[in-house]
TrEMBL record:
The lineage of its organism: Bacteria, Pseudomonadati, Pseudomonadota, Gammaproteobacteria, Moraxellales. Its cofactor is FAD. GO terms for cellular component: cytoplasm. Residues 4-299 form the FAD/NAD(P)-binding domain. Residues 318-400 form the Reductase C-terminal domain. One of its GO terms (molecular function) is oxidoreductase activity, acting on NAD(P)H. It comes from the Bacteria. Pfam families: Pyr_redox_2, Reductase_C. Keywords: FAD, Flavoprotein, Oxidoreductase. This is FAD-dependent oxidoreductase.
């Protein structure tokens, strides 16, 4: 009898898992269930081209592919419970559906700011297409925006808004921006970049309350400073959606705990994407990541596991961001290094910062330097010994590998 796999969550991880299942030869039924009212779409443009009105929403696969891959789907449907005793899920309508294999691709939701005034009109978060549409519409009417949180999403939004002639102030509680992903030098680079475009960034600043009668009027900080705003955008991080996993008594920490094969503590249930905590080969510890490349790669691993193949999740995490005319690409994760080498990219006016431990490349941060980024991805994975003197010349990075 044909087996049935249910995938919960219809976004990057979910759709990669579904299509990969077919590629690995899964013959049974595939049912995707998602609580958004749209087929899987590209999320990264929401804070970039979509907000700039340069692009519209882009589906990851056209609807016709669902027929081609024989993937059934249900939109606008939440899964409320997993019942492991009879291998079924319960939908928000009360309907029960049985599964043979289950995949949790439930991603994350925005962390909410819970202070006085945080439910006033004019406050925005950005996670999905509905948030982006609301924000895009609202921006037509605003002149002054305060962004709370100087992470990638907050800064990408800042770059878009300032170019639309909106006054932008970014408030960050930490002593520097992007501190989770970048070193001090790169934090300062982005502070400077935004300052040159007119964005005011304040660090070391705690928000006390948001003031306004019905609608946002200003943001008040602990040090007494006040920033007038007719809109406040909050980007203070993502919380993994683990509640469904808890209904099945799966092991959960800061994410659904999976092994390197994307398997949860229940053999019939895999998980992939932003919702998982997984053992990273590169970092030699467990991590939860919020990046598209990880979601897609881990989903492929999960699909392999479900279809009886054992392919460990060991892909190198990488990430990108776009702010003004700068394309930042990061390969690897900042961890142990003892030397940084900077290379200029004369063709594109960019540069790369390469982080070495001994003569092995651990991480690369590239700005408008796609060539070094591509080469770095390969070198970080293969870990060859590198000629550090040659790296400091204009030589192609791939040619800097020391001969054995
Ligand atoms: C504005 C923005 C810009 C970004 N830019 C970049 C970028 O430049 N580069 C990069 O690498 N990454 C970027 N990211 C991050 C990237 O989009 C995420 O890493 C990726 O979307 C993770 O995919 P996922 O499938 O794991 O989770 P999600 O995309 O969070 O999808 C999970 C889905 O599951 C649904 N769901 C959850 N629970 C249930 C349930 N019980 N029942 C039914 N459905 C459920 C959710 O509604 C959602 O649709 C960005 C994210 C945002 C929001």
């Amino acid at each position: 009898m044909s087996q049935k796999c249910i995938i919960i969550g219809m976004s990057h991880a979910g759709i990669h898992l579904a299509t990969s299942l077919r590629q690995y030869g899964w013959q049974g039924e595939i049912l995707m269930i998602g609580n958004e009212d749209i087929l899987p779409y590209h999320r990264p443009p929401l804070s970039k081209g979509f907000l700039k009105k340069q692009s519209n929403i882009a589906l990851i696969h056209p609807e016709s592919d669902f027929e081609k891959y024989q993937i059934q789907f249900r939109l606008s449907t939440s899964v409320d419970f997993i019942q492991i005793h009879n291998k079924s899920i319960v939908l928000d309508s009360g309907e029960e559906i049985n599964y043979d294999k289950l995949a949790l691709c439930t991603g994350g939701r925005v962390r909410k700011l819970n202070i006085r005034g945080s439910t006033l009109k004019g406050i925005h978060y950005l996670r999905d297409i509905r948030d982006a549409q609301k924000l895009r519409e609202h921006l037509k009417y605003v002149k002054k925006v305060v962004i709370i949180g100087a992470g990638f999403i907050g800064l990408e939004i800042a770059a878009v808004l300032i170019e639309q002639g909106i006054k932008v102030t970014v408030l960050e509680v930490n002593s520097r921006i992007l501190s989770r992903n970048l070193d001090v030098v790169m934090s300062n680079y982005f502070i400077q970049l935004h300052a040159e475009h007119g964005v005011e960034i304040k660090t070391n600043i705690d928000i006390r309350e948001i003031q306004g009668k019905h609608h946002v009027e200003s943001v008040i900080c602990d040090d007494g400073s006040k920033f007038d705003a007719d809109s406040v955008i909050i980007g203070i991080g993502v919380i993994p959606n683990v509640e469904l996993a808890l209904t099945a008594d799966l092991e959960v920490e800061n994410g659904i705990v999976v092994d390197k094969f994307a398997c949860t503590s229940n053999v019939d249930i895999v998980a992939a994407g932003d919702c998982t905590l997984f053992p990273s080969d590169h970092l030699q510890r467990s991590v939860r990541m919020e990046c598209l490349a990880n979601a897609a790669d881990q989903a492929k691993t999960a699909a392999a596991t479900l279809s009886g193949n054992s392919i460990p999740h060991s892909a190198l995490p990488w990430f990108w961001s776009e702010q003004y005319d700068k394309r930042l690409q990061i390969a690897g994760v900042i961890d142990h290094y003892d030397q940084v080498i900077i290379r200029q990219d004369f063709t594109n006016g960019g540069f790369s910062r390469l982080y070495f431990e001994g003569n092995v490349l651990k991480m690369a941060v590239c700005v408008n330097s796609a060539k070094d980024f591509i080469a770095s991805k390969q070198l970080i994975v293969q870990k060859p010994a590198i000629d550090l003197k040659l790296v400091q010349t204009e030589a192609n990075l791939k040619q800097c590998v020391l001969k054995k």
